[in-house]
Protein: Lrp/AsnC family transcriptional regulator, leucine-responsive regulatory protein
Amino acid sequence: MIDKIDMTILSILQDQGRTSNADIARAVGMAPSAVLERMRKLERKGVIRGFEAVLRPKDVGFALTAFTFVRADEGVGSTDIGKALSRVPGVLETHYTAGQDSYLLKVRARDTEHLQLILQEFGAIPGVRDTRTTVVLTTLKESRSLPLADDAATGRQEQRGTTKEQSKE
Amino acid sequence: MIDKIDMTILSILQDQGRTSNADIARAVGMAPSAVLERMRKLERKGVIRGFEAVLRPKDVGFALTAFTFVRADEGVGSTDIGKALSRVPGVLETHYTAGQDSYLLKVRARDTEHLQLILQEFGAIPGVRDTRTTVVLTTLKESRSLPLADDAATGRQEQRGTTKEQSKE
DNA sequence: GTTGAAAATCGCCGTTA
DNA sequence: TAACGGCGATTTTCAAC
Structure:
């Protein structure tokens, strides 16, 4: 369903999201139109969900990163509270976890004061029992890049520690 | 240093990373060449770190997401262990935290067996004292998109829960 | 920042294996 | 079904203003 060439295309795009079709075509040794069609298919199937610019958070006013564990009272299988948490601006990620804490959130805030406001918003959501927050001092690596090269030997080597050596926050 | 127009450009790109220069130019009401120059400047200054395709992990063989806390023995201010942890394939994020746990890692693995291997690699790094892992059952939201609209009123409205309604893992 | 023009790319479609 | 090739529309990119 998803062959080696697709893997190479995905591998390129997860690291260099704006690589032109023409360049990808050259990399995989196919006609640009063929690559275009593969990309479309991958997007249509949902394998490619979209493309994001990677910004340096502090440069756009978000100096604080934190992870918050939220314990919630809700029926098994329901994720309504998780959805409500996800809607709070500054919440980048919402994971429903296996532990006793129901949710693990990744949050970005402008400063500690802003973080406090966000935590208050969490508390105001019905069903949220309590929260526990860990503030990040420094982010050493932050990427989406999966080690696709490991399995299919796509020809591209594993990238190490490369991407995003972030500055202090 | 970074004006409202830059913010609009960044806001567009963090959600639609492959938006063409021409489209961005139309959105901000400027000539394409001007937008191109702004983007180049933003990349050169490091505000834009790069572009990533957002892939659905399970479609490329990574069905498991986990967060691992690592306690490490190392001198204050040193992040050598963090760098070693970052080099382990499957480690997407490495955060140095303020808590008693030294590092918080975001990890993606193919399956539980693979996760075990990764945790063993952590344990093999000198200075790593112990690890504690929380497995993610479902990811409700996973994005990089910062609520830039909040501060400067760039004209683009806040995006809610939109991006990435992910399937179970 | 804008304009304008050349080079490259995009993206559709008919053809082919 | 998937890839190729061709071609017009669009975009990228650079120079001059």
Summary: The CA atoms of residues 29 and 54 of chain A lie 28 Å apart. Chain A touches chain B through 70 residues (CB under 8 Å).
